[in-house]
Structures are given as structure tokens and as C-alpha cells.
């Protein structure tokens, strides 16, 4: 099999292609623009998102939908027309694609956010209707030359853990092999969210974002025409890219390298220095350290430069990513803020205070070292809210938990 790839898919972008391509597949670069062959390459990449019977269905019917434990995704290699500005967003299949006969009303509805077992998240995620092409489909207002990927910034978007886990990692898994030749179509659009992650999103797509729906601003009523589309995002698990799951060949380390590159973070391992730098993630509403100042003072007493990062400091992704990238130790209580470990340089240390009996799995997502402290508790319940920690760093730390404001 041979793919003759035409500009604007540049040679440097091929460095991100997975290493497990079939040996029979050769890739050459042509100076001629050959849309048909480019479309063949795009269809080949989209087929990697599904396997088994779903891939056979995609080849036969031009569309396939799969339901994973936390996400639903529909892939079509044929043309679609996406109607924006109304609810629900409608995706019309206009290339003779055939939806499964057992679908009610001959349509499929997908909530394109990767947390479908959470009722609260789904209540904040607008559905997208995938419809068979009508005899008289809506006329195109805008024609696009690349496939669409439809996803939502509803759900729990705005919380840093969920931004990374529910949106950015699934978006990376779904679009990485397309090498920015994709158009992002966003439902439940929030301008602040897109601005916050603009540098990351611009690496995933070289095209303007299409606003399909928004609760905070009016979405323009238009019909966008695409040569192919993906509705929903691939999801492999909490903060996880499984290289053996579709699309295949993408690891958690690949995502870490991608997001660090997007933010222009220094990739060199943390260099040894006389005074290691510790950043303590501060919490003020729940799971807070009552003796936070003592912890920082103790760190400084053992020749560590200590700094406290508040929730306000974490709002600027670029600025805080650079701060974490420049530290030697990131410390905090188990929670969303610890997701900032993706910005740690190789060789840095993550110190996480966890509740007694916590059995969460530790994944090597940062290239750093992980230290955890179990904490003794006055109660067998898991409803702990605050901790008071004593003892030394980095030796064993004991914590006394409190509920509410009582000690």
C-alpha cells in the first residue's frame, strides 16, 4: 500500500506518526496537490479509531458508532453537513452512509464528552444528533477541506483535572494522527476555556474553531460542510493513553511531550542545584493543610526553597506550567491540582498526601519520581476534609484529619 501525501501535510509533521505502521505502507511526499489521495490518507487514519466489526461497518456503510464505558464516538469517512446555532447540533450524513437499522428514528444521539456514566456531567453536555441525509439537505454556507471533530466543553470543563482528563487527552487521542489537518467543532462552547488552552488547541488543529452551540453566547446559525467527521472523543482511562488501544501507538508519554511542546516548556531534565525548589499546591476549601506555613518553613529549614501556589495562581496555564516546570518538587494533597504533574520535568519529584487506605494507581505520566504519604485518621469514613501534618520531609509524615472545621 502506498500513500502519496500532498501539501499542506508537511514532512516535519510525519515525525508524530505512530511507529507501528505496516511495513507494506510507504509514505512519499508529492509536490503536486492530489486531493483524492489526501482523502484516502485521511480515511485510512480515521479507520484507525475503530477496530473489528466497527471497522468493517465503517468500510461497508461509511459510518460506525461504538460505545465505550465512558465515551461514545461515531466516525464517518463520507461527507457531512453540520448545522450549528440550534439545539441539538445536527450532523447530516450526505454521502449515502447507512446508520444501523436498529437505531431508533433512524438517528443516533451522542453527548460528545468523555464521562458518560456521570449524570451531572451529562446534564451539562448537549447532545449531537446524527441523521441520515434527507432528500433535500440544507445548503452549505461554508465548505471545509478537512474532517470535523465534534466535542463538548460542557461537563466538568473548567476544573483542571477534567480539562486534561475529559477533554484534552481524549482530543489528543482522536486527532493526533491527523497532524492538525482537522477542524474542531465545539458544542457548549465557552470562550474563556478556548482562550485558556489556545496554544494547545492550535497545535491540534491548523484551522479556526467552529462554534456549534453555546450557553454563554450566541452561536451563528450556519451549515458547515465537511468531507468526513468524528463525533465524540476516544477515552482510555484516567490520565491515560494506552498505546495498544485505538487508534494505537499513542502513549501517555506522547501526550506529556505534546502538551509540554505546545507550551514551549524546557524539556531538559531537572538539573541538580544547591537549593532545590519546592512548590506546594494550596487548597482553601477542602482537603487543606491547617499548618501550611509550618510545612513551608520546614521545607526551607532543610535547604529547600519553598513556594505556595494558590488556586488563583493556577488559572494562567502558561505561567503556572512554567513555574512547575522550573521546580524540583511538587507537593500537595490528592486532588485536581495534582494534575499539574504533567508539567514536571524528568527527574523532578511529586509528593502527594493521600487519605489512609487510599489505593489509587500511580501511573508514570511525568517521567518523575512519586512519593506518597498515608495519613492516620480519627474516623473510618472517607469524608475527610482537612489535614494537619507533622514530622519531617522527606521521611514519613503523619496527618490528623478533621471533618468540617472541628479538630
UniProtKB/TrEMBL annotation:
Residues 160-350 form the Glycosyltransferase 61 catalytic domain. Pathway: Glycan metabolism. One of its GO terms (cellular component) is Golgi membrane. It is found in: Golgi apparatus membrane. Keywords: Glycoprotein, Glycosyltransferase, Transferase. GO terms for molecular function: pentosyltransferase activity. It is a single-pass type II membrane protein. This is Glycosyltransferase 61 catalytic domain-containing protein. It comes from Iris pallida.
Amino acid at each position: 500500500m502506498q500513500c502519496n501525501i500532498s501539501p499542506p501535510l508537511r514532512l516535519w509533521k510525519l515525525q508524530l506518526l505512530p511507529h507501528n505502521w505496516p511495513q507494506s505502507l510507504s509514505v512519499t511526499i508529492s509536490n503536486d496537490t492530489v486531493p483524492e489521495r489526501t482523502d484516502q490518507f485521511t480515511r485510512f487514519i480515521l479507520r484507525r479509531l475503530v477496530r473489528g466489526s466497527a471497522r468493517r461497518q465503517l468500510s461497508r456503510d461509511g459510518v460506525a458508532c461504538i460505545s465505550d464505558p465512558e465515551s461514545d464516538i461515531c466516525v464517518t469517512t463520507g461527507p457531512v453537513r453540520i448545522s450549528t446555532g440550534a439545539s441539538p447540533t445536527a450532523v447530516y450524513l450526505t454521502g449515502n452512509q447507512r446508520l444501523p437499522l436498529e437505531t431508533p428514528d433512524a438517528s443516533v444521539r451522542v453527548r460528545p464528552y468523555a464521562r458518560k456514566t456521570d449524570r451531572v456531567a451529562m446534564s451539562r453536555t448537549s447532545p449531537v444528533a446524527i441523521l441520515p441525509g434527507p432528500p433535500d439537505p440544507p445548503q452549505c454556507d461554508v465548505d471545509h477541506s478537512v474532517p470535523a471533530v465534534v466535542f463538548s466543553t460542557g461537563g466538568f470543563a473548567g476544573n483542571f483535572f477534567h480539562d486534561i482528563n475529559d477533554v484534552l487527552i481524549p482530543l489528543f487521542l482522536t486527532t493526533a494522527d491527523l497532524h492538525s489537518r482537522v477542524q474542531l467543532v465545539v458544542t457548549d462552547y465557552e470562550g474563556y476555556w478556548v482562550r485558556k488552552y489556545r496554544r494547545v488547541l492550535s497545535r491540534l488543529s491548523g484551522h479556526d474553531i467552529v462554534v456549534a452551540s453555546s450557553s454563554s453566547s450566541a452561536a451563528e446559525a450556519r451549515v458547515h460542510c465537511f468531507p468526513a467527521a468524528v463525533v465524540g472523543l476516544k477515552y482510555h482511562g484516567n490520565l491515560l493513553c494506552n498505546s495498544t488501544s485505538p487508534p494505537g501507538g499513542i502513549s501517555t508519554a506522547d501526550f506529556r511531550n505534546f502538551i509540554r511542546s505546545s507550551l514551549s516548556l524546557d524539556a531538559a531534565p531537572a538539573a541538580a542545584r544547591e537549593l532545590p525548589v519546592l512548590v506546594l499546591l494550596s487548597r482553601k476549601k477542602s482537603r487543606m493543610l491547617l499548618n501550611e506555613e509550618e510545612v513551608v518553613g520546614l521545607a526551607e529549614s532543610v535547604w529547600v526553597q519553598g513556594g505556595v501556589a494558590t488556586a488563583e495562581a493556577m488559572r494562567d496555564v502558561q505561567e503556572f506550567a512554567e513555574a512547575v516546570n522550573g521546580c524540583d518538587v511538587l507537593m500537595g494533597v490528592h486532588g485536581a491540582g495534582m494534575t499539574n504533574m504533567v508539567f514536571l520535568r524528568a527527574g523532578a519529584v511529586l509528593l502527594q498526601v493521600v487519605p489512609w487506605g487510599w489505593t489509587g494507581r500511580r501511573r508514570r505520566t511525568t517521567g518523575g519520581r512519586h512519593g506518597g504519604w498515608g495519613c492516620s485518621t480519627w474516623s473510618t469514613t472517607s469524608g475527610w476534609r482537612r489535614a494537619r501534618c507533622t514530622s519531617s520531609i522527606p521521611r514519613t509524615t503523619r496527618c490528623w484529619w478533621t471533618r468540617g472545621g472541628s479538630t
